[in-house]
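Q: Could you write out the predicted structure for this multi-component system? I'm mainly interested in how the pieces pack against one another.
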Amino acid sequence: MSADESTLRAEPVLRTRGLAMDYGQGAGRVHALDGVELDVSNGETLAVMGPSGCGKSTLLHLLGGLERPSAGEVWVAGRRIDRLSEKALARLRRHAIGFVFQAFHLMEELTAVENIELPALLAGRSPGAARRRASELLEQVGLTDRAAHLPSALSGGQRQRVAIARALSNEPLVVLADEPTGNLDSGATLDVLRLLDGLRAAGQTLLIVTHDERIAATADRLITMRDGAFVEETRLTRGTTGSLGDLVGLER
Amino acid sequence: MGRALLVGRLAARDLRRRPGEALLLLLAIAAATTVLTLGLVLRGVLDKPFESTRAATSGPDVVAAGPFADPTKVRALTGAPGVVAHSGPYPVVPALLEAKGHTVVAQTEGRDTAAAAVDQPKPIKGGWVRAGGVVLEAAFAQALGVGPGDRVTMKALEASPRKGGPPSLRTRGPGRSLRVAGVAVTAATPPYPQAACLANLCQGDADTGLAWLTRADALALAPDKNDVLTVLNLKLKDPATAPAFAAERNPPRDAPVSGSGPPPTILQPWQEIRDGSADIVRNQRRALLTGAWLLALLAVASVAVLVGGRMADQIRRVGLLKAVGGTPALVAAVLLAEYVVVALLAAAAGLVVGRLTAPLLTDASAGLLGSAGARTVTPATAAIVTAVALAVAVAATFVPAVRASRTSTVLALADAARPPRRSGRLIAISARLPVALLLGLRVAARRPRRVVLAIASIAITVSGLVAALSAHADLDGSNGVRAERLNDVLLVITITLVALAAVNAIFVSWATALDTKHASALSRALGATPQQVSMGLSTAQVLPALAGAILGIPGGLALIALVDPDKTTMPPLWQLLAVVPATVIVVAVLTAIPARAGARRPVAEILQSELA
């Protein structure tokens, strides 16, 4: 690990100061986020909960550089990103951020393994290295036998596992997951939860936006949002929440 | 009434929702209707131009020319068997005409101010001859750029026989300034620059014009009556016998040509004059017809691309309409109403533009002949153009309507009705390429039909360009009005082809950007820069353009061989080689803006909209 990387690891992986986001103008102006202050440490799993429209997804998009804030600062690994060019943001996303979306967002014409290797190819890795990494990740998410399947031939849970594998393709500093189980049934939800739990155990920084209290219960910290602001923050310990297998209602 | 209002409102809303798309659809159909209008308007001018001129001017069946000094033989023809009417004989005097910087040899025919029974040239501008007033043959006047009221100078010419070549010409005297009294058409001679060489003054391939003066004014230009010819126009009982009538009385073809002495009496049947006239417009007509075919093919490709591009959007909209209770009939009515409105506007635009553009082509190609035909849009033309535009609209609506009735509402709403195509081999190959090429190849592979249409569009255009370059090479070094006219026609066709192909390229690029907005947004979320996505979208257009340009070169050469099997002129090699990179560069530039716009759409909004 280089000195620069050591410095980066010492910083909070994610940090926001006075983060605000408005949509629309005049009478139709909506405050999606209002003065959000956030620090996420390396290896931490943070769950963000709140009712629909409270600004959870907007926060996630701002943290991932998919949108620019109306005001405030966003820092990723010690680097302020809210003023970066689109090109610089894209490069940042390649190496520092992995996204998991509720709607999976897989390329329909690509097979599972091709979807997973795509971020590595975009980052300039050789086709061989990208494919090897994709195969490892497929094995990690338990879908080796589905490598050549198109998304349309996969179940919802399998698609989300492919999406999670894709998010890990470039070994990002943080994985941002937006309602990762929102489209899944209980069985598939459990599979995804086990996967996320494995990532947390491996020290992967995770920020999960969710409606599901059971997912939130697996986090190190839970933040509740309402009307674009943090209203409650709870630090959880694994001792009190227990392991995933003990979660009521999730057993197969 | 309420239902019609609802259909109208929904259709209007959808058109307003995507005004750029509607405008491009309008442009593509309008291009087709313009070509059609041009074709229909020009048909009247080009189909039987000589016949229409002949009918309008009581054209002669036989034109006889002999020495003015001894008109006995010519006069005797008036009593020949089968002759039912005649006009003349009229004196024809060689002269040098100067006007607006042009100096051209003209044969000047002395005519009566009263109308003649046979060959009464029909003024299309101004009036007929009067003392001191000259009337110019229409194509001649157009080439000189003069009209009624302008002044021209006419100088007497003296022809001296020269061994082994055309006679040498010498002007005599300061010349006389005359006012142009009118511009007229005739069927007694092919139009400028092919006017029959009656007087003994032809200079090889040099263009020869025709002017009419009063008899007195014409003869005043001839100090030496030996240089003057006399011309008689004859009507026969049976015009079909004109060639035989002339052949009987013409000197044998192998008769020795005397360098001195009076010229022989020569008879020319109207069929020869007609063939001479057709020769003038043959190349232009070939160019026009070939161009019209290419444009029509290109227009079909345009509409197919446009309809395909709108399909994805419409399928989802159909799903929405059905979800809120719209019946398949309502859905079809809304789609139909949209296309019908666009088609009617396109038909109107095509009729207007075609009508306005037709004179550019007819004036440049037909000259005198065109002016005798109607260049107006007749009710029949308007009806045909509108019907075709509506047919395009209905054909374009049919597929979405059928798809709408067959696609489930849920699938339509999920926008999954048209999943992208997969090409495993291309995906594997693209993984080895730089990011922009990787994205471009994959984007192109998603819609193979669109790629085929883009290739076809460029191949058609490049074929046209190669054919135009060949025609241009054929004309290389040629001067005069004939070359100028063909160049004008080629230019108009080339510009139209390129403009339509440009619209096509822009729309294909735009449709691709819309179609791939989700994939582009996802690529950016995964780390592709906007520049890479933009270059990828451009690459997806440039690759088919490259293929189309390469195919277009043999296509163009085949087209040349098809149009004129007897004479195929290859354009210079450097021009052929330059066509490919030039096409690629132009397409890259044209598609840069839609590609750039497509690559800069808000990522979060697009990815979130999937959940909406």
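A: Regarding packing and overall arrangement: The CA atoms of residues 93 and 249 of chain B lie 24 Å apart.
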